Amino acid sequence: MSDEGPSTLENMRTQMKRAQEYANVTENVFKRLKHPERTLEVSLPVLRDNGEEEIFKGYRCQFSGARGPYKGGVRYHPSVSMDEVIALAGLMSSKTALVQLPYGGAKGGVVCNPKDLSRDEMKRVTRRYTEGIRRMIGPKVDIPAPDMNTGPREMAWMMDTYSVYEGHTIPESVTGKPIDLGGTPGRVEATGRGVANTTEQILEYYGRSAEDATVAIQGFGNVGSWAGRLLAERGANVVATSDVTGGIYNPKGIDTREVAELIESGGQIADYDGDVDPITNDELLRLDVDVLIPAAVSHVITSDVAEEVRADIIVEAANGPTTPEADDVLAERDIPTVPDILANSGGVIVSYLEWVQNTQEYRWTLEEVNADLERRMTEAFENMMEAYDEYETPDLRTAAYTIALDSQATAHEHRGLFP
Ligand SMILES: NC(=O)C1=CN([C@@H]2O[C@H](COP(=O)(O)OP(=O)(O)OC[C@H]3O[C@@H](n4cnc5c(N)ncnc54)[C@H](OP(=O)(O)O)[C@@H]3O)[C@@H](O)[C@H]2O)C=CC1
Ligand SMILES: O=C(O)CCC(=O)C(=O)O
After folding, report:
1. What interface predicted TM-score (ipTM) does this complex get?
2. Which atom of ligand 2 is nearest to the CA of 319?
3. Domain at 38-173: CATH architecture
4. How far is the CA of 259 from the centre of ligand 2 (A)?
5. For 53-90, how does the pLDDT look when each residue is reduced to its tens digit (9 = 90+)?
6. Which residues are part of a known binding site for NAD(+)?
7. Residues with catalytic annotation?
8. What is the pTM (predicted TM-score) of this model?
């Protein structure tokens, strides 16, 4: 992560502000959309395995609920802060509006390093966190889901803890659950699948194809590894990837399945002993590839990095990987960047499908889920490209935010919030 410039929240506001001149949004509504509706900080006493008690800090932010129940993931990471959680909740509000889900936006997080916590400690942190935010969430109010370092296991614990307090099982209180607890087939890989779909679409828009396209992916966790595997299945050549320990590179391509197996069995990229050269995360961002996919943390593409990016196209799988200053450089250099609020929306789209199935006590097939995901993302992509052409916005992000702002402003207007 870079130290460049303002906070994640300031960056999100700047990116939103750039769309204001194209969107049909009054100053009052815009002011409303700059600030969260509600935040909560919780202090979580958790018993460590060594018998000592440690206090962890947790957050939940409900940014905007004008369009429906708040929705957004829960992140476990040492760098989690209230500022970051608010910014990520703001991104969620724009994301759900852009892809036309009947939700607002929220986000949560716990300041912790999951690599230092045993399974039992993770469970105790998750239960305490859920107890801490329990009065704020609920199936019709605010529905948590996975983000960095959380997945089906943590969502199962959250759903269980919430349900115990309510006195009966409420699967629709959380999405991203294991399938046997009401999770939907396809949610685990949904964000990566959406990134792969979007990569194909943007390549096609520029008259190219995913077949043989070279791809570098920063971050090989849930999102990065599924995007990599699915792009490789479509003929792309994933030449580099990384985790926090550094990266690997082979211009002829790396075996994404083999690397994913290593990570899923608890290994790190640095342990991979295939036919690859080590590279740093900084070098990965500057590789000469067709597509660069940041799929880890925020602010990695700063203006300095943007000056040296050699990819033809960037697809943002991570939330907030590009600073506004870098956006300017990339626009100047004619490097299209598909923004996070579209590119990684596959996760929340399939979360929505899970929630709908839970409320109906019904289960769709994987094929139905994937088809619905693809239809929704294709429509959102086409809407963004239309806005880009019609308003002649400086970049794709501004086009995407213009649509999101319009939708949120219309919701405020219909509700009579600002006469
Ligand atoms: N999960 C989801 O459904 C969604 C996730 N996202 C976004 O996608 C991004 C990745 O999330 P997800 O895949 O779930 O998270 P994971 O925790 O599964 O994976 C994160 C990956 O990023 C790596 N990483 C962490 N810090 C750094 C760093 N400083 N430099 C380089 N790599 C780093 C991790 O390495 P290591 O394992 O070594 O720490 C890991 O490979 C996040 O920005 C998240 O907000 C967006 C929409 C939905
Ligand atoms: O699946 C969800 O509800 C939210 C996923 C998420 O946190 C995100 O899109 O950033």
Report:
1. 0.99
2. 10
3. 3-Layer(aba) Sandwich (3.40)
4. 25
5. 999 999 999 999 999 999 999 999 999 999 999 999 99
6. 191, 222
7. 107
8. 0.97
